[in-house]
Fold this sequence. Notes:
Strand order of the largest sheet: 1-7-6-2-5-3-4
Helix content: 40-55%
Number of strands: 7
CATH topology of the largest domain: Glycerol-3-phosphate (1)-acyltransferase
Largest sheet: 7 strands, mixed
Strand content: 5-15%
CATH class of the largest domain: Alpha Beta
Order of helices and strands: HHHHEEHEHEHEHHEHHEHHHHH
Radius of gyration: 21 Å
Amino acid sequence: MDKFDDIRSFRDDEIPAAMQRMARDAAIPNILRFLDFGMDVEQFRQFLCNIKTIDEFQVFIVQRVVEMILRQTTDGLSVSGLENLKSGGQYVFVSNHRDITLDAMFMGYALVQHGFPLFNIAFGSNLVFNALADDFAKSNRMFKMERGGSKVEFYQNLSRISDYIRHLLVDKHESVWIAQRNGRTKDGRDATDPALIKMLGMSRRDDRVKSLAGLHIVPVSVSYEWESCDVLKTIELYTSRFQKYEKKPGEDLNSILTGVKQPKGRVHIHFGPMLSEAVLCEINDCSTGEFYKKVALWMDGQICGNYMLFPNNYIAHDLQYGAKTYAGHYSEAQKSDFLHHLEWLDKNSEADREVLKAIFLGIYAHPVEQVR
């Protein structure tokens, strides 16, 4: 047994059996009502059974799903910073995290459209709802990051994930996507967790500079005109002010489906410059803890600095502070659309409307403060 067997994605030889299991799953009719593949249930099941490799699954299923989502729920996907990537290079893409599934899926689609290969995706074990979700994830080059456990188990899991990521880059010559922190950004403030940077470097302990430089870490900024799950995030943050927030059964699945279905407006992805050995050497004269904090701050500077601000961000900032500071960045029609979107607040009669409003506006306004 390979030491990565319980976390890795599928190999090509495991795909036919996975497709057979997925085709037999009772949820297929509901999925087809949600995603229109232009096939009836039996045709789709046979279509799945004819898929034999990971590349075929990603082209015939995942890419079609992404194109459907882009067509039906966005006003287009744009990309910049591709000059920072080399054809044939392997990278660890570290991005801000606004949507559970779409951040990585949109990034992968954007790269493929410009001639780059698909990458491996790190995902939390909490997102494995059932056997179907597990098979889908592992067929889509997704590998599992275990959550929880004792301190010893937690450390061992992090060490193994670090080893696996380096194995993908160095031995398999494949790239990896991972979020900058555990869980999505809820309040609009993107921040890289220094513990994530430390985890990435655990796979080579002899030289922390060369360890991180050898992973070719690229900061990525993902920007949505309309924030994914903005209402759900507001309610969660509001609840958290008064009590410990505990997820309800099926809440992650609801967030995934809401993020997929809700209008997102324009979506933009920017690939920043790779974290270089020269940058790392400049901050190498400090303690271990400070070193990883400074790397995280450098990442934040790139991710936040290259976040694309939309009219909604400027509108929210002006509304939050009762000002017209950024009035030149939006029209009255755009402001009217945003205010119309705010009408959901009137349906929450039991909550403090002003607190809800402040939280909601903050989700859109905070990026303005991080970028400027």
